[in-house]
Amino acid sequence: MKQSALLRLAVAGLAPLALCSTAHAFECAPGAPNICAPATVIDFTVEGLLSTVAPGDAPLILRTTTLITASWYDAIAPYSENAVGVHSNLGRLDTGGGDSERNIAIMYASHEVLNSLMPQFSADWDAMMGAVGLDPNDDSTDVSTPVGVGNVAGAAVVAAREHDGMNQLGDEDGSAYFKRPYSDYTGYAPVNSAEQLNNPRHWQPDTLTNGSGIFSSQQFVTPQLGVTQPFSYDTVTRMAPKPSKSYAVNPSGNPHPRQQYVAQANEVLDAQVALTDRQKLLAEFFDNKIISLGFSTLAASFYHHLSLEQFVQLDYLVNVASFDTAITIWNNKRHYDAVRPFTAIGVIYGEDTITAWGGPGQGIVDDVKGNQWRPYLQSANHPEYPSASASFCRAHATSTKLYLENVVGMSPAQANDLSFWTPGFLPPDFEVLDKQPGSSIIEPGVVPAYPVALGWATWDEFSDDCGMSRLWAGVHFLDSIPAGQDIGDPIGVEAYSWLKSHIDGTVESGN
Questions:
Q1: pLDDT 10s digits, 65-78
Q2: Whole-model pTM?
Q3: How big, in percent rounded to 5, are the helix, strand and coil portions of the chain?
């Protein structure tokens, strides 16, 4: 695996692991951010993960990051004053006043989880260990040592989550051979196909192409996520209000869409016609969950000088908040199975021409047919309602503010502050806010016409822009955004309360 951004930063001395001895003891280099072990894991993981899924494939991105950070949390819990692990309880151990033991335990716990999640890259996970002077073949389970703590903590996460309903191993349907990891075993079938619209109320898979004559149809990605076991609550109970506007059309035959159906589709078209360069860039930014959610936590950790322990706790918290939100959102998405804008606009306008964004570099045109229209971003491979991104960002922001306020000890205003995350704050390889002319992913060389600096005054503003970015992207109706946020917010609170009880050591046995 070639060097990626984090490893280049490590080599440059910005986030390095410096071996103190060959006896498996290391601390971060003087003056460097103190999250060097997690940074190394992230560095080796991101490239392998993105070779199998896209940055916007939230269910699989979130599952991977949540399980990795779960192993970090359990690996350092024994070195905490009061914290107890979620999947293991390994007693209390002394760190000697430094982070060496935590770093080692994090590395070995990650090695266990990564070999479970992506065994096809086992050589890379071994190389990850070797890069910091650790033996990938050391399978000690002596929990008086950081190697044993890491191995046992990581194995506990694997044991708890390999059969949590996500079908990670492809055997939830009883298959013994030719297993298909993460495939649906719950019997979901779309009402519509990419070629045939049977019911304009419901989700229609889009037809994708690589531009070279190869076409494929979407499938609902991991519909079983809606029945996967959450971390911070027992079962899904929250349901968004019925998407009545999406249902304001006859289910078959001549659609005869009613005013509500037309109005919400026109809101999408109006937003697309009025798109600014900033809105296009925000749509692209929030579509990538790694740089939007992941880098925001990284920036906050650097700015607030969080300890290694605090970074691990916060990173685990925001991942749990988002993943548990995803479970409820996917349950809702499957239940309502709601139509995406590209289908509704095609139903309403058919062969009639409309004024709309005409595609990359085309600007606004007035002669695109309704049934040929496509949004600024590719519609995701799951039903429309509620908005997943809006819910993730709200859960992420809510849980972050609660942690900074109640664990780190900030005032509510300080905890909500995000104004520090500006272009140039993070090292150059993490620069995602400084948008130079023509740097757009969708419209390279065209957008933005002038430099644009992204940034937010507060986590609330960050979350609000994230939600609205889905309307700007043309992939969600407006009502889907608050519906998602109203689910993400309380689950963010629940996730915080759940993890706080583990941090304080007050969690009841079995919770």
A1: 999 999 999 999 99
A2: 0.93
A3: 50, 5, 45
